[in-house]
């Protein structure tokens, strides 16, 4: 931590800052410039909570040098983590596909799509049962009934199941049915919910918030991990910008940035990021080429009658074609599926 | 709703769209342009859920003309709503101040600040007990103990109490202590939580999400209202942009925009929006001049030792001075406090 | 400037950085933390150009402590500057109105509006002659003919003239007709153009770029000032965000932020910021209350037939009513007009 | 164009709108809904300039259905365009590399890098001579002397030359030295400059503005094309968002979006987009996989002493390695180099 003093801060304000920091058991290093004096602070900064250094007389600003996340930080865990979900090993040299409909709508829908996805090579079945929708009048999901249908489809096909949870009640209802909890973009800083899934023993797929920096995202992962559950997979799904040609702006550079800062695996969801099915193949190829550990893709047997997000859903046939198109790109990256 | 067909869409694709829409009991109006044909759809669009018109052959895009929120919409409720919290009437010609510390830290802190705020004219005491913090290692709040302290301070001073709830458990714990629930920016699209406070009989302060459009914000209000609780007050608290000189960018134009679209009251939180105490007076004046129904301002007896957000907190003395400075601006706007 | 070394950077990389910095005649201060070592650099940093410290072995990042703008910086020029345009003194206790049509369209239009504006109290006539338009097929302005009409209207009414210049040719054409050059948002980082107006002896109104940080904006002012022309007035006109309810998001907090960092005057353009005439009065009041030195407002005799931006233009009657409504707010801020 | 009337707009306001539109020689189609009435407008909308329909009594809003750019629009030119620069054919099945230093600094620098790039397979030499820099105190480029050095290096190696122009004077100076003009991000809406390069017979590389939508970008291309020069290549170089981990956010989805809307070729500049050399390889792979027609990459013989943007520059050796790594990805996309 670096404390920058105002130009011409009186000597006694500098001494005061130093004495407050040192009283907390931290060390300081003073550096006097021509215009400004800076004070480096060495030691455990959590001891400074409640000493609002930035408000002390003479202080211009405080700059943090080290990240606030520890368990998610690559600096303290250099080896990439692998998270196992069913038979899939996310973060290994396997490219993992999580595919399925935005919303679970019926038994026929979920079984039809699950069988097709399995045949195409997808390892994990995704589907929404508790749906966060912008308008309260839009379809809200089949809730626990949807999870049961998914679990049955997973059992028959041998696929693992991932589904979004939006509350403690949903976590409890989902626990027996799913193999992985999904935290959606809108709940990325629902810290209460992060702690709840952090207390469980199931892997968590943590989507990036619409307006979350990568630093905030890794801090959200830290919330889950600090409760004891280290099985976190990140999912880039587009951020909100001024551009309206796509639903969100897919930040593919988040893939290598996350890999430079964290040991956690990261996948990409091109369906939600773009909102346009015609962009899913190109953004899937780009994500793989950027180093993503997997993809989450919406597939619906009949997109034209989907109860949510049909515009971004592939048919099972289109998904199958996409998988075959993606395989050589995955192979170039040293991955298989 | 308007359906725009692709240039040169074959006649049979146009007929197909019309027949699908009309089968659902809606009417259509066809308009053939030189380049494109458009189809106007008349009637209750919720009947079209599950008919993904935008995916039909020949369709280029679908444009919605009417808003998806109804109860929050000024078109169906022209009179401004007044929400009563304790003795305060938000949305009336009274300018309402919600003031207090970011976090409740101790009995002494909350009583000291409450007495001072009351004397300065604030009607509602704010304070955080369940704190959403970016890092899990930051102070997380006193939880129910904090609420009890606030309730006692409110009782002594005659001030109403508002505090943030972050989960169903927090709603249940807070119910007996607070006069108004606050939904924080990070939970604005925690639809599960919105429904829970919507089932209660207490007013709700709904902060705007960091990256929420005004349309999404009013849809979040609709979630609360559609459960039966119409006592919603909106709070503009800054949006996330590229600018880093302030913590967020305070969108003061949201005040008149909301008033043109909704009958709900709206207040402004200049403390969280800017993150800088020196900007609170100017942004408070601007908010009042823009037509805000109230202000939420952070006040701490000793900002330099606050456990959260000290940099944006006024002292009680500074708050008192601010109130006196704001009064003539409020009067010019036809308001008093 | 602070150089942050990577965790466990070898001793020789630290020594190498220090020796490179010191060879350039700068001083260093070393501060060794538990995780990281930081090197403070003292002296004139322009000497380090061409020594890309951030690329040296062992360096994690370089943080700048002091601003790169000098002439625009309040630290070296504590007194607020006053810029004189005609009879108007921008930055004084006078509130300055620049008003007029988006585009100059005809002699009748400009004289009609100029006479009305003068009567309402506006000091400066604005009008576009060289128009930057998103589409090449939209009206591009009357160019020099428009400037002549403005100059005549200014002469008759005693108002000063401000108009946008978009090229060196436009600067040369406008020089004899206008009292103040305007640099538009799209040209805020057209550094060539900034230098050209910096070589003249006329005041410059520098609009903020659509996506410009306040720091970049003050650096753009520095371009003009470093050529010798210190008569710069800044104009906040909204920044681009995700919100679509307004054309741009008016960043009113930029007013006090600029005043904390620079001695230059700052005005606000609520017409372009919002794009909606109904929002102009509330945003004008808010701007004055935030401390703006003036306002730029679009006024057109018949907005419904304006060749550009009619939707945000007031009629002369509406402008007159607005001025009367704004006067008491200006007076509260210690200003008159 | 669709005109949406306010709910309960009086009949005479509807008739008034229709009569104004039809007087201009356009046709209308009326569609009466339960809540709102909409009026479709058919014909050449440029006839409506100066009739601000959105300001007429009873009108709620006007929605445009067709794009304002014509020459750049794929609807009227279905075949992809190929732009020839020297021996390179951009938009063909050749993957084109534009590589070189951010700034031309010396004869030795430019010849060293040009020879190496040529050997690695780059077809076009890039280099800055007129440099737009945020601070006026940063290195501003060698100007015409730099262009001469580049031209000589191009002649010796057989590479074509591209360099940024920032004013009419620079266009004139550069004309004899370069094979392609570059318009930088900061000048994307410098419409005067766009017209000037549009009057020449040399290809233009048009970078996307920091905050430009794809629609605005294609309108900027239209400015160039409407002057007669159809040889435009677009370059995605990152947009400004709230994320600070990268300099800008590379919007790779812009590649397929542009290809769906326009026939113009598009390349990607991962160096400027990210500002971090370690991200250049992954973002280059992703760009190719997304369908880009080429890449612009910064290469400097000694990045640690570069006068600008060293942090994002590869060495010639790193560039050579990158080219070899990229070739199989290009081949998978049906491209060669």
From TrEMBL, chains A, B, C, D:
Any one Gene Ontology molecular-function term assigned to this protein's record: 3-deoxy-7-phosphoheptulonate synthase activity
InterPro entries: Aldolase_TIM (IPR013785), Class-I_DAHP_synthase (IPR052899), DAHP1/KDSA (IPR006218), DAHP_snth_FXD (IPR041071), DAHP_syn_2 (IPR006268)
Signal peptide coordinates: none
First-tier enzyme category under EC: transferase
Domain of life: Bacteria
GO process annotations (BP): aromatic amino acid family biosynthetic process
Swiss-Prot/TrEMBL keywords: Transferase
Boundaries of every DAHP synthetase I/KDSA domain copy: 87-321
Protein's UniProt keywords contain Ribosomal protein: no
Limits of the DAHP synthase ferredoxin-like domain: 1-67
UniProt EC number: 2.5.1.54
Name the record gives this protein: 3-deoxy-7-phosphoheptulonate synthase
Underlying gene: aroF
